[in-house]
Specification:
159 residues; alpha+beta; Sufe protein. Chain: A; 4-stranded antiparallel beta sheet; two-stranded antiparallel sheet; 3 helices
Length: 159
């Protein structure tokens, strides 16, 4: 009768097995990772100074305001600096949006906002509300813009 010795792994085989299990575990964890780290929607922002949450987007425009004039929203503090807008309204319709203040502390801020601000203004004029898309790469400016815009529209009775 021939006796078969028990299976034994040498050190190299153990290392390979451990490496394989580690790789499989890492890949499984990467695929299960949720990329969004925030539970709030893009329309919600947290004001750093007060810690209160304000909803920037309105569910629907139910206001029948006939306001005519210019209102300036409150400055929204962002990570890179304040954002403030001035809205011109004629008979309850947004006719112009001017960005009074925007982050401009360095060349990169100016470069980002040179592209982002005209897009945000254009979207506002088209949507006639704060229900606009954020500009990719200018998230902080976009959120500050929407917050200040909502403040201005509230003052004009268009919220």
């Amino acid at each position: 009768m021939v006796s078969v010795p028990p299976l034994r792994f040498d050190r190299g085989a153990r290392r390979i097995a451990l490496w394989g299990l580690t790789t499989i575990s890492t890949v499984a964890l990467l695929f299960s990772y949720k990329t969004s780290t925030s539970s709030s929607t893009a329309a919600e922002t947290v004001a750093p100074a007060t810690g209160t949450t304000t909803t920037a987007a309105t569910p629907s425009r139910t206001s029948t305001s006939t306001y005519t004039g210019t209102v300036t929203g409150t400055a929204a503090d962002t990570r890179w600096g304040p954002v403030q807008v001035r809205v011109t309204v004629a008979s309850g319709k947004i006719t112009a949006v001017d960005v009074v203040e925007e982050p401009d502390g360095n060349g990169r801020d100016r470069e980002i906002n040179a592209d982002a601000v005209p897009t945000l203004v254009s979207e506002t004029l088209q949507a006639q509300s704060t229900r606009i898309d954020m500009v990719s790469g200018a998230t902080y400016t976009s959120e500050g813009y929407v917050t200040s815009l909502q403040s201005a529209l509230d003052q004009a009775g268009l919220a």
